Structures
1.
Amino acid sequence: SFDANAFGLEQTDLMARIHGERPNGEIVEGVDVFLEIYTALGLGRWTIPARWPGIRWLLDLAYTWFARNRLRWTGRAPTLCPWESQAKNQPKGLADQASAAAPIPRPRQL
């Protein structure tokens, strides 16, 4: 099985952004991975504009936005919010059980 710690990374880091490994063992992430792939495939000329400072800044911004939302867009986002999953793992007392059973009011539509 894959071990992110072998690369000095956490699994959550790897899931947050794309990562790649150069032949020399150096880890690259984000837009740099795509530039490396295109170059390795002999399509390096297509990466020239991506290396310009203004264009590169926009690509980095766009990739960060994409990476932040990709799991939700593809239906693979966690079904629980972090605070819901924490509450789910906590033991429930009688008061908590009663409030958990109460229906959550829905906002009225106008």
Note: The longest strand covers residues 19-21.
2.
Amino acid sequence: KKKDAVDKNLVANYSAAADWSVFPIGTILDINDKNYEICDYGSALVTKKWGMPVVDIYQPSKTAMRRWGVKYFDNVKVVKWGDWSKSAEILKPRLKYPHCRTMYNGIQRQL
């Protein structure tokens, strides 16, 4: 099974990754009337690279991932904000990675 940033199993069509300086770990998003929880991050998701928030929804296989493809939504709502402090705590030992440093610095502005 695939694991998230805190070594928990990812859940297909529920677990999601994002820039934690935009959506901290534990944030619940409503996208098209379906909830997703931010539990992971990725270097390609750091906002500075894209200019807009990007969310990657975990799919159980490469086939499912290809079938899902790229989707654009304008009706994303935050159901529950996650934990900025926990996000910073998880990222702190990973600051040698540029994307982790970027997210960590962004989170510091939220605290």
Note: The chain is about 25% helix and 20% strand.
3.
Amino acid sequence: AQHTIERLHGRLIILTGNHDKPQHLKAARNVIEVRETLRIKLADDVRVFCSHCPFYSWPGQYRNVWHIHGHTHGTLPYRNKCMDVGWDATGRVIISEMLLREMIYALQTSL
């Protein structure tokens, strides 16, 4: 995992998964933080709760907070502002902030 992470560009915040060993992830030179969950605010005040595993309920769920996760390998369909953005669920596309905003906007306008 460390070798793969070091090939990624930028300073990374890693969200641990069920098979990860945090001490190995922290050893990568470009990792600035290792956590279990993360809350972020995108442009246009879009708030997102991030985790490796999907949550049935997440902080801010009823206050328009989106939830992105991995873990399920694309087997769970989009549900109520909760979506799988893992590597295999997205067709091996790394989701940038701009792409995430586009995905959220497209889902908001289709509801």
Note: Residues 81 and 104 are 8 Å apart (CA to CA).
4.
Amino acid sequence: TPASGAGPPPVGKTVSPVRVDPNGASASDSCPYPDAARSRGDTGTVILLIYVAADGRAADTKIETSSGSDVLDDAAASCVKEFGRFVPKRVGSRAEAGWFRMRFTWSFGDQ
């Protein structure tokens, strides 16, 4: 665990896709569509880098590729940190924190 006040380590050269905890609610299903983005008709896909703690919680996020909407990007990052539960990296039988990648798509369901 990083020292108190220290952030996660830098993102490595190789980042694996994140695996959602099958027992947790899907972050994308738990996230309300931001009102400002909905009223403008904003849609898009943001690619997040997620620092998954050993307990499976999203300890930090970074936007790797923007959806084109700051509102959607920020909402995805906030929601993943609040609701996301993931399968942490394993080293032998031990869970370890690490960076993962996640594609988060905002749409109105008919696209």
Note: The mean pLDDT is 86.
